[in-house]
Write a structure and sequence with these properties.
single chain, alpha+beta, Jelly Rolls, 2 domains, 7-stranded mixed sheet, 4-stranded antiparallel sheet, 11 helices, 41% helix, disordered N terminus
Length: 344
């Protein structure tokens, strides 16, 4: 890993890159309360010694509500492999400052493998493991954002407080020229006046977070309006995964992971393709499997319940009756006592 010589930016003559008008009120309202934890003047961005590890000098209880900004670089010769278990409480916003060759995994799922352009932005939710292989020179700006800052930006953008914890969990990269300009400005922020320099860095960092929050919810709204069909090969993979795990306690995240999609995208596309939610399809398949076992006399009702992924006989009986109209025992008696019966 090598040092990067940053250009000195005089705060008296520097101008902040064009920022959307909607962010002006964010500066005025939140900047005085929120501060960027950075290096001692004249620099405001710390150099990372380990990938995605917030600088220890500022990762202290006194900076719980601060945006911590750091910069990671490597020369890519030989290719450098890095990983991080995920910050337990903060989102990590990564802005690629130069084009680089990278293979990137988020939550164990490959999300990018190739040439990543400058300005590509990735947001990692708290507790999400990431890893990467950098095969060329790379320069990445990381912003570690606490929940309080996200909440303030969300309230300013949408005019109301978000219920519960904010979690931006889209694992894919997105290009944004405005964020690239803001990231470049923050990366070179230096001043001989620590007070003015900190205000400048604070405003730019807050603008980045505000735009990331706005972009995230705009993409969700766009995806809701125009959900595409699930490709047949992905649908087949999901169905095969479900059928192979009818007896195990799998959930939406497991099924989505088997197709290489996030929960949000998979659930929307699965419902558009099949007409039912993934969980509903999973339960229906378990009931169908249970009917096959009951019809074939394969053990007691409790044994059938366990083999079909239900946590108890009572739960199995309740769900079975809702779908079939009879309890498992009554349905089995009817089917086995009537020759040639095709109940269910």
């Amino acid at each position: 890993m090598k040092d990067v010589a940053t250009t000195v930016l005089d705060i008296h003559t520097a101008t902040v890159p064009d920022v959307p008008d909607t962010l002006d009120t964010t500066f005025a309202r939140a900047a005085p309360q929120l501060r960027v934890a950075a290096a001692q003047a004249p620099g405001f961005v710390q150099r990372e010694t380990r990938w995605r590890h917030a600088p220890e000098a500022v990762a202290t209880p006194g900076h719980r509500d601060a945006i911590v900004v750091s910069r990671w670089t490597c020369d890519g010769e030989p290719p450098e492999t890095v990983s991080h278990a995920g910050d337990p409480t903060r989102h990590c916003i990564a802005i690629n400052l130069r084009s680089s060759s990278i293979r990137f995994l988020c939550g164990g799922m490959p999300v990018f493998d190739g040439r990543l352009g400058a300005g590509a932005v990735h947001v990692t939710a708290p507790g999400t493991a990431t890893s990467a292989v950098y095969a060329s020179a790379s320069d990445v700006l990381h912003l570690f954002v606490p929940q309080s800052v996200l909440a303030a930006c969300h309230a300013d953008q949408f005019g109301h407080t978000h219920e519960g914890e904010l979690r931006l969990d889209d694992p894919f990269f997105h290009a944004d020229p405005a964020l690239e300009r803001l990231g470049q400005a923050l990366a070179v922020a230096h001043s001989q006046d620590p007070g003015l320099g900190r205000i400048f860095a604070d405003s730019v960092a807050l603008a980045i977070v505000a735009r990331v929050v706005a972009n995230h919810y705009q993409r969700i709204a766009s995806n809701t309006r125009a959900v595409t069909m699930l490709p047949q090969w992905r649908l087949r993979r999901a169905i095969e995964f479900i059928d192979a795990n009818l007896s195990t306690p799998i959930g939406l995240a497991d099924i989505a992971r088997s197709t290489g999609l996030t929960r949000m995208y998979f659930a929307a596309q699965f419902r558009r393709t099949t007409g039912m939610r993934p969980h509903e399809y999973l339960v229906r398949r378990r009931i169908e499997h249970a009917q096959d076992l009951l019809r074939g006399g394969a053990g007691s009702v409790l044994e059938v319940a366990m083999r079909c992924g239900f946590r108890s006989q009572a739960h199995f009986t309740t769900v079975f009756k809702r779908f079939v109209g009879d309890t498992p025992h009554c349905w089995r008696v009817k089917v086995t006592s009537t020759p040639g019966s095709t109940h269910g």
